[in-house]
Amino acid sequence: MDILRAPRITLIARPQFLEPAHLPVQWRGEAGDGERLAEFAGRLCYMSQANPAKRDTGEYLDNIKKQGHGSVLEHAVYVLLIEGISRSCSHELVRHRAGFGYSQLSQRYVDESHAAFVVPPAMLGDAPLEAAWLAQVTAAQAAYVAAVEDLMRRYEWVADKVHRRKMAREAARSLLPNATETKIVVSGNVRAWRTMLELRCGEGAEQEIRRMAVAVLRVLAAEAPLLFRDFEIYRAEDGAEAARVTYHKV
Questions:
Q1: What mean pLDDT do residues 26-48 have?
Q2: 53: CATH
Q3: pTM over 0.90
Q4: Cβ contacts of residue 142 below 8 Å, gap of 6+?
Q5: Domain count, the chain
Q6: Within a domain: residue 178?
Q7: Is there a domain that residue 171 lies in?
Q8: Spatial distance between the Cα atoms of 195 and 203, rounded to a whole number of angstroms
Q9: In 3D, which of 249, 114, 250, 93 has the Cα closest to residue 181?
Q10: Is residue 225 predicted with pLDDT exceeding 80?
Q11: Residue 137 lies in a domain
């Protein structure tokens, strides 16, 4: 049994911008494909490919965010693999619908007899709390394993072994706690990512999803800094990291 204390965020897909030869933009500054794509879309609206204000891409996108023209940010989609979060955390994450796509590990099909569990941030560093929590999740996993074995015997009459295992696991998963780790692929356009990050990086967000959101912000800001550079990560009064943003809900 693995015990996890932090999420793992992996970028697995990014935009590819193919500039049309008949509508070239007079680019300034360095930028990635997602950033160029957003600028191209914005300039198309006003046919300003000649870049009359002589802005580099970062300046152009900052002005887009300042003006609240977030629709052009919807063209750039980044896909993340998120691991090391609890199913409780994922239940909150998937509430963000517009602009997102999700593919999550299925407890109905996947054997959870060797599942990992995520320690709630509020318990980290408190030895008695962690010990009590560990005892509880250990007991829950043992109950799951026993239930799968009992259900496999109950469904011996099912000839298809794959279907038999599915029937057993889908019932036994009810014994697993919300702390059970899940893995989820999340695709989101930049506007959607920014809205989620603004809401979930704040000090008022639940601690685990806040920790996950800050980790997501670090990955996206490293990949596309011109799209996320108005976010600032800081240490909040509770000792955990949080983030604030300059341009709200563009």
A1: 97
A2: 3.30.1360.170
A3: yes
A4: none
A5: 1
A6: no
A7: no
A8: 15
A9: 114
A10: yes
A11: no
